[in-house]
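Troubleshooting log. The previous run stalled partway through. Resubmitting the same two chains, unchanged.
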Amino acid sequence: MNAHPPLFEVRDLRVAFGRNGVFAEAVRGISLHVDHGEVLGIVGESGSGKSVGMLAALGLQPEGARVSGSVRFKGRELVGLPRRALRELRGSRIAMIFQDPLSSLNPVMTVGDQIAEAVRLHNPDLSRRAALDRAKDLLALVAIPQPDRRLQQYPHEFSGGMRQRVMIAMAVANDPDLLIADEPTTALDVTVQAQIMEVLAELQARLKLGLVLITHDLGVLAGHADRVAVVYAGQVVEQAGVDDLFARPGHPYTRGLIASIPDMTAQSERLFSIDGTPPALGRLPAGCPFNPRCVAAQDICRREAPPLHRKGDHAAACHFAFSATESAA
Amino acid sequence: MTRYILRRLIAMPFLVLGIVTLAFLLTSVTKGDPLTAIVSDRQLNNPEVVAAAKAKWGLDRSLPERYAIYVGNLLTGDMGTSFITRRPVAQDVLYRLPATMELVIAAMAVGATIGISLGVLAAYFRNTVIDHVARLFALFGSSIPVFWLGLALLYVFSVQWGVLPGPGRLDARATPPPMVTGFMTIDTLLAGDFRLFLDAVWHLILPAFVLGWAVAGTISRLVRANMLEVLSREFILTARAKGAGEFRVVIRHALRNTMVPTLTVIGYSFAYLLTGAVLTETIFSWPGMGSYAVDAARGLDFPAIIGVTIVGGVVFLVTNLLTDIAYVVANPRVRLG
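Second attempt completed without errors. Output:
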């Protein structure tokens, strides 16, 4: 249907970790795509495989992990690409930012040097001076005051929010097409979270970035994502446009996530939470992986893993995905 | 930063005075009678000779008096006269200290280079053959005594294979260059004699390696442990996500973060090297402080013993200060006001 291939397309991505020759899959066939200038939210609990999957897509999986499936960037296959070719893409066409900006920055290098390094790695002919000038502009771009002075400082001299701005500046240093932000606000104070999201949203619009926003907090995605993929136990269990997802969630896990967003206007005292914990690596229950925690689980859920049911652009991996809404309609 | 260094510098004279006092007191409470070193056995029963010797060397005075005179002389750079060489101790030290420093610095260079390289390789290729070989190398280095290793290597490389020279700082037939710095490698270059310079370097290799091996072992284990820790940190992932190659990730991002503990160990290894130099110098006929100290101790040469102790102490203080400064420079988080 599309003349152009999507900016970033992941198909049946699997990542397995081995111990003593026995491999267990942390990512069990994730498929998703991001178009130019589109914001895709990926939501799931910690350990669901959302971060590992995205890292592996760029060849940054932990040592000893086994990666299979297909990852295409502008139509070019990344899985199995030589390390050198991947390196040329990373930081130039595809950038990443991480959860904890303090541990993500090198403590013994000045902020200016770290940003300039990102610039020069992909523009080797640029002088150090010119790269530092570019770094200064980048700091100004993410609204860090006094960029001249800040360049010469070390990460520990920055506040948490300012550090994350530095990470963002570093990520967009080479005008990438795709930015993968892995829990960019999780380690920050609540008041700062909103500011960082604003910076990200503004840059995304200005630079026409494809943005993958990984989070465990569905609430963060409400105002920022175009589409959302819900990941559970290493699989995408639901995928839909953001409004559609919030209005008509097709998977009970998504309904649980929506219900656990704190509601400032509600009078209820207790916060909703989904009972139980996600399955441990390599210890999946029979049938639907969510069935032990599901309030609506039937016999079939304990026997058969549900296929992905589709309804337009909305997909959900639940035996009863669209039956409830349809009967209600 | 400057205030911190200033504070440390101000403390230095007091520390040195402490060392002088201790060295002086320790030698005065030892059992040995320095007269046996000054007066020949035959003359020891001659009261006149003994009294004259006592008067000449100030041994007839009380301990506090001798201490006051010694400290007074020290301030003018006079460390007394050696009983054995009959030359001023300060002059002997000036001649011998550079020889030791040249050996110790060369050993440190060998130890740090081998140690850091092995540590980095062992960490990056952990649990592979490279890692095991590095571990074995470190184990040998720290468990083989210097005197045995020195003799064994001299025998193999010099006597058997003849690829490296025997003991000494220069070929026995060569004429040493005029002494300027006391560093043979520098003095030969100052004299414009490049062949002699190569000869000096050639003679440094074995003793520097013997002395440096143990330090290399310690440093490689430390670097390996620190590298493993740093390589698992998140900023390493950031560097890779930026598109940095493995070499840059390891050297620029990881190794630089392990420099703080490494510098500390390198600095404090100086003390070990100074002591280790005693044995190495003896084996390699190296005219340094170590062999001077051994001769002084054997001959109850008290002025020389005190002199060696003070110089050793001062060298130790200075290297510790340099270590602490390097520590601050390498670690921006502890820049002190």
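Takeaways: Chain A has a mean pLDDT of 89. The longest strand of chain A covers residues 22-34.
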